[in-house]
Design goal:
By secondary structure, the chain is an alpha+beta fold. It has twelve helices and 18 strands. About 2% of the residues have low confidence. Bound molecules: FE2/S2 (inorganic) cluster (FES) and fe (ii) ion. The site of FE2/S2 (inorganic) cluster has 10 residues, from loops.
C-alpha cells in the first residue's frame, strides 16, 4: 500500500514532476527503425511523457523529433513540407533542421536577427539496430545508450512489437515483475497442457521443450520471493519447490526506469521482456522484445511471434500483426488493439468454463484486462499487498527513492552513466536448496556475447 502522495509521486511523469525528472535522465526507445524507414517520408505524430512530438527522417536520413507546435505561432509541424534537410511549417514557411535549428524564415526581412533567437524544441536521438532512442532530459551532452542485449544484437536475432496499454506505466511494469500471476492468469484448465508449456502461446517459449519449469511452476503456486537492490534496478527471485533437495528459481530483472526481462524456458532459450514507455500518465507504449542471443530467429519462430495461436488464446506475449485497429494519424493509433476495454478484450465465457483459466484470448490481453480494469492510475491506498508482491514493493521503493534522491539531493542512479550495468539477462534455474541463489545464478544472468545457458 502507498499513501496518496507516494502514489502520485510514483505514477506522474509530466514535465517538472519528481518522477518525470528521473525518467527524463534516461534514453527512451521511442521508435522502431522500421517506423521511420524512408527519407523524406510522411512525418509521424508521437506522444512521449505527455509531450506531443513530430518525428521525421530528412532527405539525408537523419531523424528529427520536434515539438508538435511550431515556435512561430504554434501550427502543427505534422503538416510540414519535407524539404532538403528539414521540415518547413506550412503556415508561414519557417524551416527547421532535425535538431530544431532554424534553417529559413522567408517571411522575415533578410537583415532581421530574429532567426538567431528562435529554434524549434528538438530532442537528440540515436539509432542502434532496431531502435531509435531519444533523450528528453536536461543535459546538452546526453549520457550513453544503455547496453540492453536486445538492442546490441543484429536485427535478425530480435523480434520487436508494440501495443498501447490503456493504463499508467507503473501498472504495466508491476504486472511483469509479478511472477505469481502467471500460475493463474496465463494457464489452461487441462493440467497436462500447462506442464507442457501450452506451446506456442507465449512469445519466449520458442523451443517447445518447456515441461520441467512449467511443471514446477504449476506444482508450487505460492512462490517465495527474494528481492535485491542493484546498480541497475531490482533483481527479483521467485523460488518454488523443485525436487526434494532443490529449488526452482525464476529470476526477473527490473532495470530503471522502465525495462523488464522475464525468465526464459527451455534448453536453448530466447529472452523476452518489455520497455514500458510512458505515452502520458494514462497510456503506456509496451515495446516487447524476444531475442536469441546467438542466432537469427528462424522462420518458424517468427511465424509464431507474428501470428500467435495456441490453446491459451490467439495472442501471445506479443500482439499478433493482425491484432490492431485501423490506424488514424493520432499518436500510436497504429498500436491500438482490437482486444480492448470497449469489448471486454473479446472475453470468451465458454472458454473460461472449458479451456482457459481466464477465458481471455491470450497472454497480453489477459494482462491488459487485469491491469486496465484497475483504472488508468490505480489508487494504491486501497490495495492489500501479500508476500508474493515483494518484487513490486521493492521496485516502487527503488523508483520513489531514486526520484526523491534526484529531486532533493541531485543524486543520480549509477545506471544513468554506466551503460554496462544493463548488459544482463533473466534466468530460470534449478539450484541445490543450500545454495545462495544470487551467487549461484550470477553466471546465468550475464549477457556474455556468444554464450547461452540452458534454462529450465
Ligand atoms: S506557425 Fe509555423 S511558420 Fe508560422
Ligand atoms: Fe502476465
Amino acid at each position: 500500500m502507498l499513501s496518496k502522495e507516494e502514489n502520485e509521486l510514483l505514477t506522474r511523469i509530466g514535465a517538472g514532476t519528481t518522477m518525470g525528472d528521473l525518467v527524463r535522465q534516461y534514453w527512451l526507445p521511442a521508435l522502431l527503425t522500421s517506423e521511420l524507414a524512408e527519407a523524406d517520408g510522411n512525418p509521424m505524430r508521437v506522444r512521449l511523457l505527455g509531450e506531443d512530438l513530430i518525428a521525421f527522417r530528412d532527405s539525408a536520413g537523419q531523424v528529427g523529433l520536434l515539438a508538435n507546435n511550431c515556435p512561430h505561432r504554434g501550427a502543427s509541424l505534422f503538416f510540414g513540407r519535407k524539404e532538403e534537410r528539414g521540415l518547413r511549417c506550412v503556415y508561414h514557411g519557417w524551416k527547421f533542421g532535425v535538431e530544431g535549428q532554424w534553417l529559413d524564415m522567408p517571411n522575415e526581412a533578410p537583415e532581421s536577427n530574429f532567426k538567431d533567437k528562435v529554434r524549434a524544441k528538438g530532442y537528440p536521438w540515436q539509432q542502434r539496430n532496431g531502435g531509435i532512442w531519444t533523450y528528453m532530459g536536461p543535459r546538452s551532452t546526453p549520457p550513453p545508450l544503455p547496453d540492453l542485449e536486445w538492442n546490441l544484437l543484429p536485427e535478425s536475432h530480435v523480434y520487436l512489437s508494440k501495443r498501447v496499454a490503456e493504463s499508467n506505466w507503473v501498472q504495466t511494469l508491476e504486472g511483469e515483475i509479478d511472477s505469481s500471476h502467471s500460475g493463474f492468469l496465463h494457464t489452461v484448465l487441462d493440467e497436462e497442457a500447462n506442464y507442457l508449456g501450452v506451446q506456442g502461446a507465449v512469445g519466449d517459449r520458442l523451443t517447445g521443450n518447456t515441461a520441467r519449469g512449467m511443471y514446477y511452476k504449476m506444482k508450487d503456486r505460492h512462490p517465495h520471493f527474494e528481492v535485491l537492490d542493484t546498480d541497475y534496478g531490482v533483481l527479483i527471485g521467485a523460488r518454488r519447490a523443485a525436487e526434494e533437495d532443490s529449488f526452482y528459481w525464476r529470476i526477473t530483472q527490473f532495470l530503471l526506469p522502465f525495462h523488464t526481462v522475464i525468465p526464459p524456458y527451455g534448453p536453448d532459450p530466447a529472452f523476452s521482456g518489455h520497455a514500458w514507455i510512458p505515452i502520458d500518465e494514462h497510456h503506456t507504449l509496451a515495446l516487447c522484445f524476444t531475442y536469441h542471443p546467438l542466432r537469427p530467429l528462424t522462420e518458424d519462430e517468427l511465424r509464431r511471434l507474428k501470428y500467435g495461436g495456441g490453446r491459451l488464446g490467439q495472442q501471445g506475449l506479443h500482439p499478433s500483426v493482425d491484432a490492431f485497429q485501423e490506424p488514424t494519424s493520432e499518436p500510436w493509433s497504429q498500436y491500438r488493439s482490437i482486444y480492448n476495454k470497449a469489448n471486454d478484450y473479446q472475453m470468451d465465457w465458454e472458454a473460461q468454463r472449458t479451456v482457459r483459466y481466464s477465458g481471455l484470448p491470450g497472454v497480453w490481453p489477459q494482462d491488459s484486462a487485469c491491469q486496465e480494469s484497475m483504472g488508468p492510475i490505480y489508487d494504491r491506498t486501497s490495495e492489500h499487498l501479500g508476500t508474493s508482491d515483494a518484487g513490486i514493493i521493492r521496485a516502487r521503493r527503488r523508483l520513489i527513492g531514486a526520484a526523491t534522491a534526484l529531486r532533493e539531493r541531485g543524486i543520480l542512479p549509477p545506471s544513468v552513466d554506466q551503460p554496462e550495468v544493463y548488459n544482463l539477462r533473466s534466468a530460470s534455474v534449478v539450484l541445490p536448496r543450500a545454495d545462495n541463489w544470487v551467487e549461484a545464478s550470477a553466471e546465468f544472468r550475464e549477457a556474455r556475447p556468444g554464450v547461452n545457458f540452458a534454462a529450465v
